[in-house]
Write a sequence for this structure.
């Protein structure tokens, strides 16, 4: 049973990890916790759904289409709304992303209704790949974990091994010094929001078959993803990913052994307790602001 | 009209000049005459506005004046509402039940405040958010409080006023709201309020001049939560039936939106924000009935969207208003009011 629980923890944990990573990318670039992340992922997932079922696109073309859409949506949020803020402070950024979240939610509920839809991915939940006495792995489980790991690896390569990633890191550490070295900080912000939106969209597409597809589908996962990012430490790339898996494990094991009803509560209470001892998450250094 | 203040006691006065006294009296008389002029449906709208005003006042103390964010105020409102229902069922008088709601919510505010002392930005946001969700989920599982199905609120005894129940409830809520406004305003003019503002502007500088950060941050959380608790108590009375799904994350966000729309850090801002936001929400829920906008929205809806989902337009407009306010008018409605006032003072020069 433990192995089975571990598998389901890894599945949900990998989705939390993707969402946490998406939150972390924008937070590192701009100190904005992007509350619209979930709704952006939801709309992108709906785009996949429409491309698949209404226009009968082949699966990979639909995924490609929604990834491009997600990138544009992220760029839009940064370029049209966040960049225009007068005298910005963290609170006003938070409000802008919340406003964007409400707008996207309203538009999606207006367009697609609040009824639940079914998205058809080529991996099914009923097809069992491996099975023995103790546990079974379905195709969907495996695909979710593998795709999530691939995306995490690509983002890792992008940030650690490319010039773009170097520029992103430079902007995070010191915007003015980065600008003096010829990096366009505005462009980096745009790309960061685009990438983060794409990562979020993939998480949305992966979670859609597990929960059902409707405009409020990302509320809970987004809060969990955000919580996972905070648990690991918003600014540490490894931290947020580990935080995601950790949250998945805590939630599933508590839900099975103690109480399924209080599953979500415990996840959040643990976060409050962890933050009490480590105010910047488990894997991040806590810097006290100097005068 | 003299605008310059020459001593501290002038700063403490509730009204700066006679003109303000006049308009405040007009407003009060208007509020008290309202039940005799309009139908009781409009009274319920004013009740809802008043409840939102109380939450906004408390939240504005925390967010606007102390600079700490909270995404969990729905949790405090829920605590207040459920405490009141529980005590009313036990036969406790409403005033004591309401006070207890404030106290319980305030204590939980301190409880949340303690781990939040060291937190900033997104970490504080997630801690408060977690608290709000946890409270709602736990309250929703207590069978003595109705569980997931909800619980009906006993009607309070207001027959001694000799008025209809709706009317006397309206007076009750309005009086509490006015008291809350005056309390908030006085807090801000006192040592505590100035300590709050110094923490918001720079916590390091504040502690250097002797502001006890722990104490005042906890005060801020406690007062803010107590206001939300009292508001929850009144909200329960006004709704007559509460269930856990009322107190969602979206409700917390709406409260934050009210404060930002009204103007961070201003008492008048909280009031304006709550009144305008409540009104807008009620209007936008029936957007089709609005004269010109309604037909445009409907036509658009038939062309591109689903016509039955048209009530969701309220989300779109709420979001858009929030974004536009933050981008173009960071001081919110109060900022607009200030600019208009200054413009007319010197008009036409």
């Amino acid at each position: 049973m433990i192995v089975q629980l571990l598998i389901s923890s890894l599945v949900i944990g990998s989705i939390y990890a993707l969402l946490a990573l998406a939150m972390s990318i924008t937070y590192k670039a701009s100190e904005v916790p992007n509350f619209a992340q979930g709704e952006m992922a939801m709309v992108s997932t709906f785009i996949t759904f429409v491309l698949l079922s209404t226009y009968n696109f082949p699966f990979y073309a639909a995924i490609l289409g929604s990834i491009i859409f997600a990138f544009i949506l992220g760029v839009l949020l940064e370029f049209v709304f966040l960049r225009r803020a007068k005298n910005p402070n963290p609170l006003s950024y938070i409000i802008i992303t919340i406003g964007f979240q409400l707008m996207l939610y309203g538009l999606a509920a207006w367009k697609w209704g609040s009824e639940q839809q079914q998205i058809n991915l080529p991996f099914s939940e009923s097809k069992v790949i491996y099975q023995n006495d103790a546990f079974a792995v379905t195709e969907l489980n495996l695909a979710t974990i593998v795709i999530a790991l691939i995306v995490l690896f690509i983002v890792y390569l992008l940030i650690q091994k490319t010039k773009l990633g170097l520029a992103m890191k430079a902007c995070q550490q010191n915007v003015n010094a980065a600008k003096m070295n010829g990096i366009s900080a505005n462009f980096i912000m745009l790309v960061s929001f685009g990438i983060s939106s794409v990562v979020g969209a993939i998480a949305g597409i992966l979670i859609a078959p597990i929960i059902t597809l409707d405009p409020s589908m990302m509320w809970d996962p987004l809060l969990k993803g955000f919580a996972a990012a905070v648990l690991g430490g918003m600014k540490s790339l490894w931290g947020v990913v580990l935080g995601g898996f950790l949250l998945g494990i805590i939630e599933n094991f508590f839900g099975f052994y103690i109480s399924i009803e209080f599953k979500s509560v415990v996840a959040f209470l643990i976060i409050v307790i962890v933050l009490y001892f480590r105010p910047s998450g488990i894997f991040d250094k806590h810097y006290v602001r100097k005068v | 009209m003299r605008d310059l203040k020459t001593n501290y006691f002038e700063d403490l006065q509730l009204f700066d000049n006679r003109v303000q006294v006049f308009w405040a009296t007009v407003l009060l008389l208007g509020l008290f005459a309202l039940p005799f002029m309009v139908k009781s449906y409009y009274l319920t709208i004013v009740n809802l506005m008043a409840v939102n005003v109380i939450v906004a006042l408390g939240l504005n103390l925390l967010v606007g004046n102390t600079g700490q964010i909270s995404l969990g105020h729905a949790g405090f409102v829920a605590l207040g509402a459920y405490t009141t229902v529980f005590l009313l069922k036990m036969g406790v008088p409403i005033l004591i039940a309401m006070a207890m709601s404030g106290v319980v919510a305030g204590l939980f505010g301190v409880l949340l405040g303690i781990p939040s002392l060291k937190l900033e930005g997104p970490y504080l946001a997630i801690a408060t958010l977690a608290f709000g969700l946890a409270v709602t989920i736990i309250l929703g599982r207590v069978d003595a409080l109705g569980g997931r199905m909800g619980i009906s609120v006993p009607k309070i005894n207001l027959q001694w006023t000799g008025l209809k129940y709706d009317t006397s409830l309206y007076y009750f809520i309005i009086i509490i709201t006015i008291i809350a406004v005056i309390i908030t305003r006085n807090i801000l003019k006192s040592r505590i309020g100035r300590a709050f503002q110094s923490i918001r502007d720079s916590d390091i500088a504040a502690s250097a001049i002797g502001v006890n950060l722990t104490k005042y941050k906890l005060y801020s959380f406690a007062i803010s939560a107590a206001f939300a608790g009292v508001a929850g108590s009144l909200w329960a009375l006004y709704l007559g039936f509460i269930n856990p799904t009322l107190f969602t994350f979206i409700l917390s966000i709406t409260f934050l939106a009210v404060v930002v729309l009204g103007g961070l850090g201003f008492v008048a801002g909280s009031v304006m924000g709550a009144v305008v936001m409540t009104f807008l929400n009620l209007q936008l829920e029936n957007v089709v009935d609005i004269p010109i906008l309604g037909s445009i929205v409907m036509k658009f809806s038939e062309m591109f969207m689903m016509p039955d989902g048209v009530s969701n337009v309220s989300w779109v407009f709420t979001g858009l208003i929030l974004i536009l306010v933050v981008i173009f008018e960071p001081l919110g409605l109060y900022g607009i009011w200030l600019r208009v006032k200054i413009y007319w003072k010197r008009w036409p020069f």
About this structure: The first helix of chain A runs from residue 2 to 30. The two ends of chain A are 53 Å apart (CA to CA). Chain A is about 70% helix and 0% strand.
